[in-house]
Amino acid sequence: MTAITLIEDAATLNSRLASLDLAGRLSLVASLGGRAVFTTSLGIEDQVITAEIGNHRLPIEVATLQTGRLFPETLTLIDETESQYDIHIVRYEPEKADIDAYAEKYGLNGFYESVEARHACCGVRKLKPLARALSGATIWITGLRRGQSTNRADTPFAEFDPERNLIKINPLADWDIDAIRAYVADNSVPVNPLHARGYPSIGCEPCTRAIKPGEPERAGRWWWENDEKRECGLHVHEEATVAAQ
């Protein structure tokens, strides 16, 4: 399938998904054929999507990037989520050789020293495992929301990802945090206890802190950096083609 076709398909999907509820959005995506992969960080948004996939028995693979630096609470939640929804969450881990090479060049916690070192760590622990998770996939589903940060304010429901040559689906793009919390409460969705301790966005333990009152949701990620648009690279690429909204 050509990039032009995928761009056109993403634009069509973006319009169709806008009028559906979450169950309808995921069911539509699951009906498209091909390999659909949902990558979860076990954050509260992702737990909502996992609940819908599990409860409706949708043919969507669920995967997570087990970076080797996750909070113990996150690791426990993986097992709890699998049990509650009778699903298997595939773990993708970094290669030991890559971790060793990073530590030799930057030091194990060298990511605190420079943006270059931090991006290199995310590359080893997240981007390379993600590439394996999405190998052969036609659709990538994420928990991105417009309200998470200014960098994500224009998140569409569907977009073409030119780096990975697939369609990326963001079924919660228009959900706010209050709607997320209401769904969790109404449906007894298991969530990371760190959320109740001031961690709205949870990544690797060394790179995540609780936020202060009034701070944006993702202010606790890589807090030592000054760039307000800081990301790990999973959802940022230089030539993103976004479907018209």
Automatic annotation (TrEMBL):
<comment type="similarity">
    <text>Belongs to the PAPS reductase family. CysH subfamily.</text>
</comment>
<keyword id="KW-0963">Cytoplasm</keyword>
<keyword id="KW-0560">Oxidoreductase</keyword>
<comment type="function">
    <text>Catalyzes the formation of sulfite from adenosine 5'-phosphosulfate (APS) using thioredoxin as an electron donor.</text>
</comment>
<dbReference type="InterPro" id="IPR011798">
    <property type="entry name" value="APS_reductase"/>
</dbReference>
<dbReference type="InterPro" id="IPR002500">
    <property type="entry name" value="PAPS_reduct_dom"/>
</dbReference>
<protein>
    <recommendedName>
        <fullName>Adenosine 5'-phosphosulfate reductase</fullName>
        <ecNumber>1.8.4.10</ecNumber>
    </recommendedName>
</protein>
<feature type="domain" description="Phosphoadenosine phosphosulphate reductase">
    <location>
        <begin position="36"/>
        <end position="210"/>
    </location>
</feature>
<keyword id="KW-0479">Metal-binding</keyword>
<feature type="binding site">
    <location>
        <position position="204"/>
    </location>
    <ligand>
        <name>[4Fe-4S] cluster</name>
    </ligand>
</feature>
<feature type="active site" description="Nucleophile; cysteine thiosulfonate intermediate">
    <location>
        <position position="232"/>
    </location>
</feature>
<feature type="binding site">
    <location>
        <position position="122"/>
    </location>
    <ligand>
        <name>[4Fe-4S] cluster</name>
    </ligand>
</feature>
<feature type="binding site">
    <location>
        <position position="121"/>
    </location>
    <ligand>
        <name>[4Fe-4S] cluster</name>
    </ligand>
</feature>
<dbReference type="GO" id="GO:0019344">
    <property type="term" value="P:cysteine biosynthetic process"/>
</dbReference>
<feature type="binding site">
    <location>
        <position position="207"/>
    </location>
    <ligand>
        <name>[4Fe-4S] cluster</name>
    </ligand>
</feature>
<dbReference type="GO" id="GO:0043866">
    <property type="term" value="F:adenylyl-sulfate reductase (thioredoxin) activity"/>
</dbReference>
<keyword id="KW-0411">Iron-sulfur</keyword>
<dbReference type="GO" id="GO:0019379">
    <property type="term" value="P:sulfate assimilation, phosphoadenylyl sulfate reduction by phosphoadenylyl-sulfate reductase (thioredoxin)"/>
</dbReference>
<keyword id="KW-0408">Iron</keyword>
<dbReference type="GO" id="GO:0070814">
    <property type="term" value="P:hydrogen sulfide biosynthetic process"/>
</dbReference>
<dbReference type="InterPro" id="IPR004511">
    <property type="entry name" value="PAPS/APS_Rdtase"/>
</dbReference>
<dbReference type="GO" id="GO:0005737">
    <property type="term" value="C:cytoplasm"/>
</dbReference>
<dbReference type="Pfam" id="PF01507">
    <property type="entry name" value="PAPS_reduct"/>
</dbReference>
<dbReference type="GO" id="GO:0046872">
    <property type="term" value="F:metal ion binding"/>
</dbReference>
<dbReference type="GO" id="GO:0051539">
    <property type="term" value="F:4 iron, 4 sulfur cluster binding"/>
</dbReference>
<dbReference type="GO" id="GO:0004604">
    <property type="term" value="F:phosphoadenylyl-sulfate reductase (thioredoxin) activity"/>
</dbReference>
<comment type="pathway">
    <text>Sulfur metabolism; hydrogen sulfide biosynthesis; sulfite from sulfate.</text>
</comment>
<dbReference type="InterPro" id="IPR014729">
    <property type="entry name" value="Rossmann-like_a/b/a_fold"/>
</dbReference>
